[in-house]
Amino acid sequence: MRVARSELWAGRALLIALMAFTILPFISIFTTALHPSGTVPNGLDWPANPQWGNFVEAFKVAEMPALLASSTFIVLAVVPVSLVISTMAGFAIGLLRIPGASVLLFLFVFGLTLPFPGIIIPIYLLERAMGIYNTRLAIVLPLIALYMPFAVFWMRTHFVNMPSEISEAAKVDGASTWDLFWSIHVPLARAPIASLGILMSIWTWNQFLLALVLVEDPTQRTMAGALGAFQGHYATDIPLLCAGTILILVPTLVIFVLFQRQIIAALLQGSVKG
Amino acid sequence: MATLDERTEALAVSRRTLLSNRVRRETLVGWLFTLPALLMYAVFVLLPLLLTILYSFYRWDGVGPMKWVGLKNYLTVFEVPDLLGTIFNAFWLVVWFSFIPVGLGLVVASVIHRVATGRLGSVARTVLFLPQVIPLVAAGIIWGWLLALPGLINEILKFVGLGTVTRAWLGDFDRALPSVGMIGVWVLLGFCTVLLLTGMTKMDPALYESARLDGASWFQEFLAITVPLLRYEIGVCLTVTVIAALAAFDIVYVSTAGGPGNSTAVPGIQIYILAFTQRAIGLASALAVMLMILVVIVIIPIQRLSQERIE
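^ Those are the sequences you sent over. The predicted structure of the assembly is below.
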């Protein structure tokens, strides 16, 4: 395809300007994090004497190992359970076509429009009554439930497109519904299940509102929730706040760089299907 | 004497019951498959939804006795400017979280598609997407610092000779909301760009080639081909970003907490403050119900428009 030279350069300039707009904030908090703790540096100033120790300090005061462990625990509790139960439901609705499937589907899809802040109050009160308030379970259980509309819809979209011959052949061989599900259809659904797993892991790691309302102790929260608490404590110490923010971002950024292709693909498919 | 007919009849009946038993069992098993998902969804989403609606008709502090007040909480939302204002603020955020990222995203995607199909394009894709994977809380903290008085934004303004407009952006009554909006642009631009770009690469390249043979400029190509054919992807972008704007919480909570005054308070923030610091559960619930209805009302026409077949 041929494009005029001037247009080529104008286009490239626009892209570079936008990349700078995206990247500069990260660079700015990085240089700020290297200034002496407690000072208020300017914009992009490189410090005369870089304080790499700020990262060590932030690592200690933010209790990073505990935060990482807590977030990982929550992800490991939420994602596998969500994957199994949403795949089962998607299978029943999309492939078995059980009576009432369309009603069920509508019920789940309706949940896609629900904003989290809309239902947070009863969740808080329910969890107080159930005695799980201020535990990790307080985040885990509602998160699994809140993912169901998207996850069931996502898996149903996969199963509804599976040719029925596969299931019929298995039934002739005398396979039970569970065999059909577990030994035949789950292996075939590996790709959509993996994408869904990536999506739900990122969303869980980044979940803030549930952590803020339902768990007071930052070391029992998700990463985003812990970051919120860290900001609450160190809002006035800008370099330390920036150092802590960077530390909390590092795991996400590493994962993104390693799996960027899969993550971008999953996030895009997720929104197109949603 | 049992005739052959009778015997076949009996056999057929028993086969029918056998078959319907099997169907019934399969139906039962199918329902069992949906049960865990349905149960979780019912307890932690549907029940809270019903309870929110129920609470909205009461005056309640969450602990003491509940007092039925009918529609009074809804009237209060309409009468108190600070409460109704959160809904206006939410719509104002839609401009920043939705219209700008989608509009600019369309331009950027078509630029990448036209001039940067190589390495620059794929690097730009990854870089612009980056803010989408970090927690919104982190975006709020980062920009909270950038928009502060000694922050990067003011430094840049001074550098280009606009020193007179510098200010503490998030502390300024008139500029705080657009500043929060800027954070939304930063987070959502890459997402929209990459989504729209994916849609463009799926289109038939012959369309573009013939347009270019006819000497179409970038802008003509953009209006005549890109925008109409990307209707579905634009609809998806609008849906996702409009929900992000109307239900905004994380970014606002971290960067301004609704202030200064109530100038950046959005429904999500106001629900949180009413319920968890002022203990006005009923009023908070009424606002929550209105927010949920609002989202549905705004999303339905967007979905209709984008799903329509192109004649």
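Chain A has a mean pLDDT of 88. Residues 3 and 9 of chain A are 10 Å apart (CA to CA).

Shout if you want it in another format.
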